[in-house]
Amino acid sequence: MMHDTLNTPRHRQIVALVQAHGFMSNEDLAQRLGVTVQTIRRDLNALAETGHVARYHGGASPTSSTENIAYGERQTLHSRAKDAIGACAAALIPDGSSLFINIGTTTEAFARALTGHRDLHIITNNLHVAVALSPRRDFRTVLAGGLVRPQDGGIIGAGATESLSGFRADFGVIGISGVEEDGTLLDFDLDEIQCARAIMRHARRVILLADHTKFTRKPVGRVGDLTMIDDFVTDRIPSAEFRTQLEAANVTLHVTDNV
């Protein structure tokens, strides 16, 4: 249990990095943040005492698999990789298509990459996506009804799931919080999971967006597996085991250029 807030930007960066990667060594953190290993050790000791990280010899791991990283930190974390994934996925969408876009910072990067497209019909439960795309006169943007989550603009709840289920679209573009090596797709929040499942059920082709750090994160909620998607867009070549799972599920792998 956390007893204190994160009072310094460096502490916030450390927690975000540890949660994103699953484990970070003292040396990696020191290099990333431009400080000494001794400083990192002191920081980790303080963060472990307040329950923000779990301290191990040589580094630290997340304390919980039940909470996602704060939205503002997710926006900046691996932003170049997310932009590259978004651009790669946008290239798969023809003009004149209909598509679902779900909650997440990677799907928001995808939405920003649609600026060169024409005549799209978008259904989303992501308030930020709707705001970004709504000025386009040749786009028809439908916002799912439901409870707006203040921390990230996600629209959730039974109303959102029902709204999404009222449509049928050419593409469903989804982001998730974790991917297991065996192909299990994971997320932190039950409401998000229900919305993602509705999108996957009602899209003719499902495109999953996930950067390489999602392989080290272990949320507890199961969204589904690779048999429910058609395309997987990521920023690094996955392990041989995971590529075997993709092939068995007949999923097309798309890897961005190195960023």
UniProtKB/TrEMBL annotation:
Residues 7-62 form the HTH deoR-type domain. Keywords: DNA-binding, Repressor, Transcription, Transcription regulation. It holds the Pfam family HTH_DeoR. It comes from the Bacteria. This is DeoR/GlpR transcriptional regulator. The lineage of its organism: Bacteria, Pseudomonadati, Pseudomonadota, Alphaproteobacteria, Acetobacterales. SUPFAM superfamilies: NagB/RpiA/CoA transferase-like, Winged helix' DNA-binding domain. InterPro entries: Carb_Metab_HTH_regulators (IPR050313), DeoR-like_C (IPR014036), DeoR_HTH (IPR001034), NagB/RpiA_transferase-like (IPR037171), Tscrpt_reg_HTH_DeoR_CS (IPR018356), WH-like_DNA-bd_sf (IPR036388), WH_DNA-bd_sf (IPR036390).
